[in-house]
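Protocol step 4 of 5: obtain the predicted structure for the target chain.
Materials: sequence only (see below). No template structures provided, no constraints applied. The aim of this step is simply to have a reference model before the mutagenesis design in step 5. Sequence pasted as it appears in the construct record:
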Amino acid sequence: MIAILRKLFGENKEVGLAIILAALSFIILILPLSLKRPMAKYTYLVTLSPFQGASEKLKRLAETNQSNKWLREQLLKRELELIRVREALEQNMRLRNVLGFSERKNFTFIPGELKQIDPKRRDNAIKISVREDQEVTQDMAVVNLSGLVGKTTDVFINTVTVELLTSPNCRVAARDQNTRTMGIVRWESGNDLLLDNVPLRDPVFIGDTIISSGLGGLFPEGLPIGVVSDVDIPKRGFFKNIEIRPFVDFNRIDELFILKQPKETDE
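Step 4 output (structure tokens):
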């Protein structure tokens, strides 16, 4: 019988299955009522039950795939968070290395995002946004990866005004990193800064690096400010005229950090 069916249907298995199901349905139809129910149950178990089991398996497989997709998404999120944490740590260490800070000083860098240029003080002040939970006060040093940017002035809930080194009101006690000569860095005009109050006898040379001296307590010691671009010895007077090219490009400020110094009781 099986050989005959194989020969009859050949490769058309779907057609053969349909004919067999139709024949079984016809047989069930003409059977007495007492035999219809057992025969129908048997036919269901033989023909349709395996497909229902396969359907349940496919459903569970789909649910498993959906669960795996969710797990992969969560894993990707955690990996991205870990990358951001690593980048923040590397950025922190890079900033410490650039600014010459040692670990024992335990400075805290509060990140700030440029919000706008102060319209009333376009050339010498900017506004940055910080998180509300950060402790920012007036007269805190502001730096970036290049060096000293300025200091904080007006502080609101999450907005801080930063007075740049290009402001006449922002002056920094500084010294020559090579010769240790002391002076005051200020801005007068243009893109360069001035190093004032340097006596004629004190050595300062073109190419020397100028850093903050730490005197006065506002700006910590060792913040890079700029490099000496010109030294002029006047015929009259008691001080040299020294120009400094700042390390910070004040027209392209992006990454900013408010420098929080540790309290004396915390050291």
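Step 4 remarks: The radius of gyration is 39 Å. The helical segments are 2-9, 13-30, 33-99.
Proceed to step 5.
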